[in-house]
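Q: How would the structure tokens look for this protein?
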Amino acid sequence: MTDTDRHIFEPDGRAIPYVDEGAGPALVLIPGKGIDPVHLGTLAHVILEEDFRIVRVGSRHSGADEGTTLLEAAQDVVDVMDHLGIADAWVGGHAFGGTIARAVARAHHDRVNGVLLLAVEADVPAEAELAPDIPVLVLQGGDDEVTPPANGEALRESAPGLVSVVTIDGAGHLFAATHAGETAAVIEDYLDWD
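A: Here is the predicted structure in token form.
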């Protein structure tokens, strides 16, 4: 991917960066807070090889995300989905991006087929509590010290049968980049979009 693949969607004066690649079932990925959508590019490109459509949505530009609420960030994701004609998708993210994905699922239940959490944050606000009846796949690095594996295990215990957890041994917080092949294989197997 090059910088030319990155687009800016500007509804109501908001500058929301995004990358849209591939064709097939849609998976929307959200990087951590304030991180450009190119951050999840390595993982996205591995998943693209299996005929997925991957949309990466970043935070608002010009420092505007400093005052952006969680629900506003979730609405930004839905607005990009609308802009691209995506009626529903799996929505996921890394760290705070996963918290945004959870808020999208809670506020826009009918738009989300499932939630993918890469490195789960603990103690999320009520707007990001798990949405009822939406499956959740948690991937976590076994050696992650920023968002430790205990966070994913606690989430599974809070919603047995709804949350599946896979730990990637030897992986740290940035496992989506450092272990992209292994991470993508778990996602592809779980979604079973063959």
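The chain has one domain: 3-191.

The mean pLDDT is 89.

Upvote if useful.
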